[in-house]
Design a protein that fits this description.
The structure holds two protein chains of two kinds. Chain A is of the alpha+beta class. Chain A contains 15 helices and 19 strands. The two termini of chain A are 48 Å apart. By secondary structure, chain B is of the alpha/beta class. In chain B, helix 5 packs across helix 7, helix 8 packs parallel to helix 15 and helix 12 packs across helix 13.
Chain lengths: 651, 601
């Protein structure tokens, strides 16, 4: 076996793939999908079904890539399902009102199409219903349709997904069946615009193969960006992987947002870069990623067997397990849990008390949810199962750290807001009712969209939708010739460190950038600190980033990701500078502008690059319901969704 | 506490990532190809790698080349490739017990490869005229006698001829081929298949003398006239039951029974046939009896159903044909009437092997039964006939041989196959014939004995030896499939004649695979172990998504380890028993004294 030698820039590990930096590969498509996760796969499938020639560019391996790559256990917002007792229109309106910065238009699309997208995947082979009648009699099961529900057993909007572990291979197989051309191990690095012009129509993209180092030029009539949210901006620490962070997928670095930014697209909400506000913290974490809801509504006990109280959203204690799943209670373990520990009222360690749960809940949580949720299937279900864990007898310990809310959580409050840069209602691209960005020819789906909060169905539905719209648009334009200068400039940027000596590893570079953000763009921001942060990032760009060594295409990939994080860090700082007010809702704190959510700042602040300068603007929070759009979600959806628009081949 | 709380640590604090077990890993690189973080990558070709199936084949067949060629529809090339190590793919493809299949690395994924059926397909679909034996190397002028024209003897003859020696085979029966030709019934192995392969051996210039048994006198002459000799006389004599009534008319040894059917179509059966024995010869006899017209065929054997030596598939097929299988019975006596068999009295057998595993059956004489019978076939064992052999060659029922060189105590005399071995199978006989050919060639050319010693007592490689190297198999294998089919894909199984048709004739029960089915089956082969296990380059980038563990077809090859989990918690032994590792019992949880009490401490 070869021996791996790591020294500063000398003694490269053997790289087993043939390397050809700079070699160009060209490909033409009607619709180009950047990012092969859930959103990208649904986009590709729906574009292909409308007769478009589709190419997918994916940094990893599409068959198992992305946040849902290892599996999905529940499918929310499924308002269309026959057992749902909640009213979609009312739910859409109330959600738009209560979480003001969440994009109501996107939430509406999700609610309209979530059930349909689940049915799509069922047809492709993911049998999510209780076909084997394992849960007959359970309160979360509808005997007629065999659908099983999660969380709220009355409103029935969230579906438990049996066989969800195979969602990605199933989508992958469908794409192959439809003739979609998949480019795995190719990382998109830059958009192609008409005439090479900044702010121009998007006519394709460029990328690099992370195994061979070869360059790829994709020409397309329409492009869908679905490379999810960004991450690792404030905290770079591979040790934290597996500590149940919201770092759902290490490849989610933000290439799409950075590429779009450099091409001149408008972004928003970049100042809100944190995880979700669950409303309670101290959720026991039993695995990597975010398996919190996966364990719902499991009883938690302390070392003496004393139960941790569950409460509804008003703080009333819920006595029974059944009450936790009642209509609209939004149950959670008491937010007081950490203080109870501090006072000695709860004694560590805490355990998930599966043996005490009703038998069907126990079987559902362990055998259905944990076994299908990607982040728990192997690390918890398989590993512990093989070690002899028996959910009927054994209790699984959970670590408790204070700062667990949506964050990497381990460490001082300075980077409590750290973690994921985006997703969950945070920064991304501004889109209209076609899910088109501010650049013609460029669409966005999934967590790429600013203010999107839909998890798996969010990705599936917006992917479906954007795929349709992109295919429709592609049939109205011709292929364009990319600008040679734009290609050469990107190649120069991508390969700048190849063959160059250096003594900084990419991990050091990443840590350095994170340190800048921790200090200068932390939980409490100010003009001076933010401007200093920009100065530092610029300085790092010219020094350490120009001395980083890249020994093989994998390290090239990671280096380019560092550059992406630097770009996005700059955008986040600019967005933070632009918002001259604090916000409770956004968890955004300016010590120099301490007023919380003043009326005139309740809006989206948009940013884009223009003539090398950052230009800010704003959008009202309900811009999807204002001119030039209609005044209700329903009208707009029906006008724009394009469901009846059947193009050439029906596949 | 309602339930005992076990201290099962949480995977949220791992400090290790991926471990690969090189013993189990087949280097299909599915993990590397699906890993999102390049934690592991493909690696370099492995020198000396051998797949588990090839390791299990006593004859050292190049199985991965077979699947490679058939994958591409090149049946003739597949056949030619097999014949470099085994001149009887037609025979083996129909009746080998395929130890290779049980070791297939694909089994945990969906089903193992149907290697046996593929070997048959190579024979069935190759263009017989296009398959050329390897070029003869030279003519040595040496003469070798092979005594016994069965699989062992003929394999030895084939390779010796290719090595340039002049070979003469002495076969006692009117036709060469041994057990496959003389005993195994037509519906399992058509005579034409065996005859074709024997003819190909003869076409190399091997002189096969049939109807030529060798007694002591002939053996003495052979030792003088030939430069070396290979004894492969097999075990052609049916063992006697040793019970009263054995001399009655209607009692016949199984080997004679099968031979009469095979050679002269003169075997007869009555209405009630009882076959004594639990091995393949017994099932062959029973199924043949059904085809010869008997409606009531019963097998009785000492062993239990689970430990009967016959292939389970043969027992199942026998039962499907209406044969009654009675395990755990021994024979007390054969009942006669007017000098003819009228029945068999059986007694219960309570155990077959003694504590040391030797054959030593015990009975319960109080439990017995009588079965009506007009024919009794004794299929309780095959015996050698060593009357021709020199006394120093005899080691009990077998010829004494050196396990590595197959040389007997008489210089220049070698032995193999059933006569020299307690392990009896066709493929084992072929393997010994090939080993003997190498050994004899070294002897005749005063070659380097180390070339054979290098292979130990495992399968030899004639290809490697002929190329001038040692007889140890080398790992020169075709390319691995770039994107293997990871299924789940069902295995293609051969079509069988419908049950009602089977006993009506001696036609083959199995039709084998069609060409398309064979190609589809061959594409399922991963062609394991040509490369080193994946290179784990960036373990600290592992994200614990478990995709590699989930998708690995060779279960256990890749693990996600959490040392905290390993050190404290529950583990299971292979027996299923649960045991604690690390801390014996969880420590008593501390209790915080109630408010006001702490001052007292």
């Amino acid at each position: 076996m070869s021996v791996f030698k790591e020294t500063t820039g000398q003694g490269a590990p053997e790289w087993p793939y043939p390397v050809s930096y700079g070699k160009e590969n060209e490909f033409s498509a009607d619709v180009l999908i950047i990012g092969g996760g859930i959103a990208g796969c649904h986009a590709a499938i729906n574009a292909a079904k409308r007769g478009a020639k589709v190419a997918v560019v994916e940094k990893g391996a599409t068959v198992h890539s992305g946040c849902s790559g290892a599996g999905v256990d529940h499918w929310g917002a499924a308002y269309g399902n026959p057992c749902c007792t909640s009213d979609l229109e009312r739910a859409a309106e109330s959600s738009a009102n209560s979480r003001s910065y969440i994009n109501g238009m996107v939430s509406y699309i999700i609610m309209r199409e979530s059930w349909d997208s689940l049915l799509d995947v069922e047809k492709m082979g993911m049998k999510f219903r209780d076909e084997d009648d394992e849960f007959v009699g359970a309160p979360f099961r509808d005997d007629k349709t065999k659908i099983m529900f999660a969380y709220d057993y009355t409103s029935r909007t969230n579906v438990r997904v049996r066989h969800g572990a195979k969602v990605k291979p199933i989508l992958h197989r469908e794409m192959l069946r439809l003739g979609v051309k998949i480019f795995d191990r190719v990382m998109a690095t830059g958009l192609l615009t008409e005439g090479g012009k900044h702010g121009g129509r998007v006519i394709g993209a460029m990328g690099v193969n992370v195994r061979t180092g070869e360059f790829y030029i994709f020409r397309s009539k329409a492009t869908v960006l679905s490379s999810a949210q960004y991450s690792g901006i404030w905290v770079f620490n591979t040790e934290l992987a597996g500590s149940s962070v919201h770092l759902d997928e290490p490849n989610n670095v933000g290439e799409g947002s950075a590429m779009a930014w450099r091409a001149g697209a408008e972004l928003t909400l970049m100042e809100r870069s944190k995880g979700p506000v669950h409303g309670s913290f101290g959720w026991p974490r039993f695995g990597v990623g975010s398996p919190t809801n996966t364990w719902f509504p499991c009883t938690i006990v302390d070392a003496n067997g004393k139960e941790v109280p569950w409460v509804d959203r008003e703080g009333n204690i819920l006595q029974t397990v059944a009450e936790r799943t009642a209509h609209r209670v939004q149950a959670s373990p008491t937010p007081d849990m950490v203080d109870m520990i501090a006072r000695g009222e709860l004694v560590l360690p805490l355990y998930a008390d599966l043996p005490s749960m009703p038998e069907y809940e126990r079987r559902a949580i362990w055998g259905l949810m944990i076994a299908n949720e990607g982040k728990t299937r192997v690390p918890v279900y398989e590993v512990y199962g093989q070690a002899g864990f028996d959910p009927n007898k054994d209790m699984l310990q959970t670590p408790i750290t204070e700062y667990e809310v949506g964050g990497e959580g381990l460490g001082p409050p300075l980077w409590r807001s750290a973690s994921a840069g985006g997703g969950w209602g945070s920064g991304g691209l501004v889109v209209d009712w076609d899910l088109r960005t501010t650049l013609p020819g460029l669409y966005a789906a999934g967590n790429q969209i600013a203010g999107q909060n839909g998890g798996h169905p969010g990705a599936a539905t917006t992917g479906r939708y954007a795929g349709r719209k992109a295919a429709a648009y592609a049939s109205t334009v011709d292929q364009s010739i990319p600008d040679r200068k734009q290609i050469d400039a990107e190649k120069a940027r991508v390969y700048q460190r190849i063959g160059q000596k250096g003594d900084v590893g990419w991990k050091e570079l990443n840590m350095g950038v994170a340190r800048v953000m921790q200090i200068y763009c932390g939980a409490y921001k100010s003009e001076r600190m933010l401007q200093t942060g920009l100065w530092w990032l610029d300085s790092v760009r010219h020094s350490e980033a120009s001395k980083t060594y890249v020994r093989n295409p994998h390290e090239l990939e990671r280096y380019l990701e560092c550059l992406t994080r630097m770009t996005l860090s700059e955008v986040i700082i600019h967005a933070s500078l632009a918002r001259k007010a604090s916000s409770n809702v956004l968890d955004f704190h300016r010590v120099d502008y301490p007023t919380m959510d003043p009326r005139d700042w309740r809006k989206y602040i948009t940013l884009k690059l223009q003539d090398d300068k950052v230009v800010t603007g704003d959008l009202p929070l309900n811009y999807p319901l204002q001119a030039p759009f209609a005044s209700t979600f329903k009208e707009n959806y029906e006008a724009h969704a394009g469901l009846n628009d059947t193009r050439t081949n029906n596949r | 506490m309602k339930n005992e709380a076990y201290l099962v640590p949480n995977p949220a604090t791992p400090c290790q990532a991926i471990r690969i077990d090189p013993e189990i890993c087949i280097s299909c690189y599915r993990c590397a190809d699906q890993c999102r973080a390049d934690v592991m990558t493909r690696n370099v070709p492995m020198a000396g790698g051998i797949s588990k199936c090839e390791l299990a084949c006593p004859a050292g067949e190049p199985i991965r080349w077979t699947t490679y060629y058939i994958d591409k529809g090149r049946f003739s090339d597949a056949l030619e490739s097999i014949k470099t190590e085994n001149p009887f793919p037609g025979v083996c493809g129909r009746v080998c017990f395929h130890p290779c299949e049980e070791k297939c690395a694909r089994i945990p994924l969906d089903q193992g490869i149907g290697t046996n059926a593929l070997e048959r397909a190579a024979f069935d679909f190759a263009d017989a005229g296009a398959v050329k034996p390897p070029e003869k190397r030279r003519t040595t002028g040496k003469k070798v006698a092979v005594i016994g024209g069965g699989p062992a003897g003929l394999t030895c003859a084939y390779y010796l001829a290719l090595l340039g020696h002049k070979v003469t085979v002495f076969e006692a029966q009117p036709v060469a081929g041994g057990i496959p030709r003389v005993n195994i019934p037509e519906y399992r192995l058509p005579a034409a298949v065996v005859d074709r392969e024997v003819k190909e051996i003869a076409s190399l210039g091997v002189d096969i003398k049939v109807n030529s048994p060798v007694n002591a006198e002939a053996f003495a002459r052979i030792k003088k006239e030939y430069d070396a000799c290979f004894v492969a006389t097999g075990a052609p004599v049916s063992a006697k039951l040793g019970v009263p009534g054995e001399e009655l008319t209607g009692v016949i040894g199984a080997l004679e029974f099968l031979r009469k059917a095979r050679l002269s179509n003169s075997a007869t059966v009555g209405k009630n046939v009882v076959v004594i024995g639990g091995g393949n010869v017994a099932t062959d006899s029973a199924r043949l009896a059904r085809r010869l017209g008997s409606q009531e065929v019963t097998m009785a054997c000492l062993e239990s159903k689970a430990t009967m030596p016959a292939y389970k598939s043969e027992v199942d097929l026998a039962e499907a044909e209406g044969i009654h299988v009675n395990p755990c019975w021994g024979v007390k006596r054969i009942i006669g009437q007017d000098g003819k068999v009228a029945g068999v009295e059986l007694k219960e057998c309570t155990s077959v092997l003694d504590k040391e595993g030797r054959f030593s059956p015990s009975y319960n004489e109080n439990v017995s039964c009588v079965i009506a019978a007009d024919t009794v076939v004794a299929a309780i064992g095959q015996m050698t006939d060593l009357s021709f052999a020199d006394p120093e060659m005899r080691g009990g029922p077998r010829v004494k041989v050196d396990a590595e060189t197959l040389e007997t105590p008489v210089p220049g005399v070698y032995a193999g196959g059933d006569v020299g071995s307690s392990i009896r199978s066709i493929v084992q006989a072929i393997a010994s014939g090939k080993r003997a050919a190498i050994s004899i060639d070294i002897f005749l050319t005063r070659g380097d004995k180390g070339r054979l010693a290098a292979a130990g007592i495992a399968a030899t490689s004639m290809q490697s030896y002929m190329a001038g190297g040692s007889a140890a198999p080398q790992n020169h294998v075709p390319e691995q499939p770039q994107y293997a089919d990871f299924g789940p894909t069902a295995r293609q199984d051969p079509t069988l004649t419908p049950v009602e048709q089977r006993v009506k004739s001696l036609d083959e029960v199995s039709q084998g695979l069609s060409k398309e089915e064979a190609i589809a089956e061959a594409t399922r082969c991963f062609r394991c172990s040509q490369y080193e296990p994946p290179l784990v380059l960036y373990p600290d980038e592992c994200w614990f998504c478990g995709t590699c563990v989930e998708e690995c077809p060779a279960k256990g090859a890749i693990r996600m380890e959490h040392p905290l989990n390993q050190r404290v918690g529950w583990k299971r032994k292979e027996t299923g028993e649960l045991y604690r590792v690390g801390q014996k019992n969880p420590p008593e949880p501390y209790t915080v004294p109630p408010v006001g009490e702490s001052a007292k401490v």
